[in-house]
Amino acid sequence: MFHDEVCVSSEIYANNVTLRELEQMIFSGELEEIFICHYQTERISKLERLVMHDVKSEWRTKYKNNISLDDEACLNDFPNAIAFL
Asked: What is the pTM of this model?
């Protein structure tokens, strides 16, 4: 979890959501903000806030088939070798 650019918690939750659950949270309004990481090391994560309206409108074409909820992924498994981890 991050507050501004400061990591306030690095806890990993064991009960990861499924892609279907994530989709439901986005479209039900349960999520207020979404961030993606463009760069990550053990100590640094560069996050970009996404506009919720854009995520909803591009869900099927840009995000749904390119999200990996696993810790590791192979880019070849995703359309156009684009993945959101």
From this structure: 0.68
